[in-house]
Amino acid sequence: MQPITPIGVIHTPFQNIEDMPIQPKGAAGTQGQIQVDAAFQPGLEDLDGFSHIYLIYSFHKTTRTELTVVPFMDTQPRGVYATRSPLRPNHIGISIVRLEKIEGNLLHVLDIDVLNGTPLLDIKPYMEKFDAVKHSTSGWMQASEKEVAERRSDSRFK
């Protein structure tokens, strides 16, 4: 397997894991910047036509792995793969953010729920025709969008 090397850094107003939004829904309007390393800047060509992008990143402050966790939106233990917990074996996160503009190797984004200084592993465009899934289900997670938007993180996943 080829090693994964970060392609940039994510900059956000969130300096601490505690009290962060737990998903982009809770970060509505929050501004951030994605600084892509100059060597990878040519890969940004044609990205400016997309309204949203996926950020794939490393949960770089996570130091442990748990296969069963109590997620933020529940009170009972769940298998880590049925959650968005950072305590997964490879500590990889994903967020969909709004792409505001691109200036050279700097992407200006909105609705970002990521810790400042997070290593960026990859960027992928959100494509509604590929990614929107009608009639999907969310397993155990029954919270409303409002409940998700209002929920903040705590120290359980340090």
From TrEMBL:
CDD domains: UPF0066. InterPro entries: TrmO-like_N, YaeB-like, YaeB-like_sf, YaeB_N_sf. It comes from the Bacteria. The keyword S-adenosyl-L-methionine applies. Residues 4-135 form the TsaA-like domain. Keywords: S-adenosyl-L-methionine. Transmembrane segments: none annotated. NCBIfam families: tRNA_TsaA (TIGR00104). PANTHER family: TRNA (ADENINE(37)-N6)-METHYLTRANSFERASE. Belongs to the tRNA methyltransferase O family. This is TsaA-like domain-containing protein. It comes from Desulfotignum phosphitoxidans DSM 13687.
